[in-house]
Amino acid sequence: MSLLATLGLELDRAVLPASGLGWLVDYGKLPLAPAPLAPYEVLGGALEGGLPGGGEPLAGDRKQKKRDQNKSAALRYRQRKRAEGEALEGECQGLGALRERAESVEREIQYVKDLLIEVYKARSQRTRSS
């Protein structure tokens, strides 16, 4: 299909010079809006027939190469996400251990405070009774 036919244009062949260098379009025959293209249709049928103008179809090995590239990209993405998840898991475990250690230190501090309070009470009772 030619570009002119795709755009809905017609040549006035009577006005064409013998050299074929010029052409005339009857502007009264132009469509108001170009016809909408199908989802993957391009002018000249580049995706249908391969090359514009109906050349060779797209090579199967090019499609396979794209599939392989996509497959390896997806694999790298999944590996990266898995590594990020494992890093977050390790960080969570480290934070859990740190929280346990902080709670242990808090309990130890409270024990020492309670011990000091008992010591001060015992001293104050001894000094009062003496």
- What's the Cα radius of gyration? 42 Å
Helical residues, percent? 55-70%
Low-pLDDT residue intervals, each spanning 5 or more residues: 45-49
Separation of the first and last Cα atoms: 118 Å
> Major β-sheet, in short?
none
Shape: rod-shaped
Give the ordered list of helices and strands.
HHH
Structural class assignment: mainly alpha
Overall pLDDT confidence: 76
The portion of residues forming beta strands comes to under 5%
What is the number of helical segments per DSSP (H or I, 4+ residues)?
A: 3
Number of strands: 0
In words, what does this structure look like?
It contains three helices and no strands. The chain has helices at 3-7, 46-49, 60-129. The longest helix has 70 residues, at 60-129. It is rod-shaped, with a radius of gyration of 42 Å. Mean pLDDT is 76; it is low at 45-49.
Task: Compose a concise summary of this entry.
By secondary structure, the protein is mostly helical.
Kindly list the characteristics that best describe this protein.
bZIP, 3 helices, transcription, 130 residues, mainly alpha, bZIP_sf
Draw up the topology in text.
Elements: H1 3-7, H2 46-49, H3 60-129
